[in-house]
Amino acid sequence: MQCVLTPDTEGYDQIDSITTGASVLVEGLVASSQGGKQKVELKVSKISVIGESDPTSFPIQKKRASREFLRSVAHLRPRTNTFGAVARVRNALAYATHKFFQDNGFVWVASPIITASDCEGAGEQFYVTTLISNSAEGGSLVKDIPSTKDGRVDWSQDFFCKPAFLTVSGQLNGETYATALSDIYTFGPTFRAENSNTSRHLAEFWMIEPELAFADLNDDMACASSYLQYVVGALFCLVLNSVKYILENCKEDMDFFNTWIEKGIIDRLNDVVEKNFVHLSYSDAIELLVGSKKKFEFPVKWGLDLQSEHERYITEVAFGGRPVIIRDYPKEIKAFYMRQNDDGKTVAAMDLLVPRVGELIGGSQREERLDYLEARLDEQNLNKDSYWWYLDLRRYGSVPHAGFGLGFERLVQFATGMDNIRDTIPFPRVPGSAEF
Ligand code: 4AD
Ligand code: MG
Fold first, then answer.
1. Which end of the chain has less Cβ packing within 10 Å, N or C?
2. How far apart are CA 184 and CA 292, in angstroms?
3. Distance, CA 322 to ligand 1 centroid (Å)?
4. Which residue CA neighbors atom 28 of ligand 1 most closely?
5. For range 308-324, the mean pLDDT
6. Ligand 1 site, residue 227, Cβ cutoff 6 A
7. How many A from CA of 361 to the centre of ligand 1?
8. DSSP-assigned letters across all residues of 159-228
């Protein structure tokens, strides 16, 4: 807001203290602007400095600062235009998320942050232990950890009497509630100790995980598509009623992203809302990639997982920016809980891909048949005993069910056009960085 002072304004003598970063209290009358870029300005009658800011040391100067630099001052970056806008759009997307699920009869369930199971089976978990802190004073940390005769950690002496981790996904717990209450969703922080320094990975991110009872993969894909169209549409007032007030706030922010961050993003998001998503089987996707004759860094072959470059080629080049859902992946590259298809080779899995971000959603129909699920745990060398409660869901009144997980920061990235996922969460956690 442009504030106009004259030498007669009360407090004018403090003008030298009104520097970048200072906080001030301003009183006056809003009037239409005399020229300039702003519609209105404030004719100040009184001004006083509340908190001074030393202009020689305040880290964020008026000139444009790089995103990398702003990450090093994450405690001050929310004061910039860009990070203010990201925070508001993130808030609107969270509100729209709850609104979508609540209006459709889903119950929000809190899944635990500390867990003893590895949902994705990828071994990317952070340990939660008091063994280290309890012995930290001695200096030598590892030596003091109790071990069994064969030299392994003696977990019976740890806080939970067994290995415990920060959760990688709330899904397994979500399934327990879906098979009791019907449709539920979780929305909370999840953690992955994967050492990938990319623009799409965080060690701590928020995940939205709906779980639908009496549902198959088609229901799951339909839910994922409606959800994405709803929350993106919500940013442009396409959804009315009570969501409207935040949407109006977002309009200015979306114009800002459209002008300064990614030109044309509003049109591209509108397309997402209005056009149908492309559906493709994994096998067809492999054929498409092989047929493209494009040189990829990673090999393309039936049985291998799709890499980000493949996913981006499919949505950005092959389908001109439309979201694409790929289904029926080889069972070897997917988690143990996914339902086996009749071909014996693939599972009822789906990934939803969007331009720039690649995989935004990963989901599946769950294996509801006890014998199949037990066989799958054996095949993947997972210990059936530690999944006893999860298997109980198949022992007692098992129902077909399906769900998906959406990485909330990837959604913010997609909706704002921000290049790097580290700029979509207030305090990013990535390898080598947990300062703030
Ligand atoms: O595909 P993922 O690993 O699926 C699951 O965790 C299932 N349990 C979900 C379910 O069916 N309930 O992760 C789901 C989504 C990904 O599609 C991606 O958007 C996001 O979570 N994600 C990450 N986002 C940021 N940083 C990371 N390191 C991420 N890993 C996954
Ligand atoms: Mg996935």
1. N
2. 40
3. 20
4. 201
5. 95
6. no
7. 7
8. TTSS--EE-S-SHHHHHHHHHHHSSEEEEEEEE------STT--SEEEEEEEEEES--HHHHHHHHHHHH
CA of 405 to the centre of ligand 1 (A): 6
Q: Is 410 in the pocket of ligand 1 (CB under 6 A)?
A: yes
Q: Report which ligand 1 atom has the smallest distance to the Cα of 403.
A: 11
Could you tell me the domains of the chain? 2-58 (no CATH), 78-128+164-423 (3.30.930.10)
Mean pLDDT over each residue of the chain, to the nearest integer: 92
SS3 417: coil
Helix and strand numbers (H, E) in the chain are 12, 13
Q: Report which secondary-structure segment, H or E, holds 255.
A: helix 244-256
Q: 131 and 157 in contact (C-beta within 8 Å)?
A: yes
State residue 110's pLDDT score.
98
The pTM (predicted TM-score) of the whole model is 0.94
Q: Where are the alpha helices (DSSP H) in 50-130?
A: 67-71, 81-103
**Residue spans of beta strands (DSSP E) within 112-151:** 114-115
* pLDDT, tens digit, 9 for 90 and up, residues 297-307: 999 999 999 99
Query: In this predicted structure, what is the pLDDT of residue 247?
Result: 56
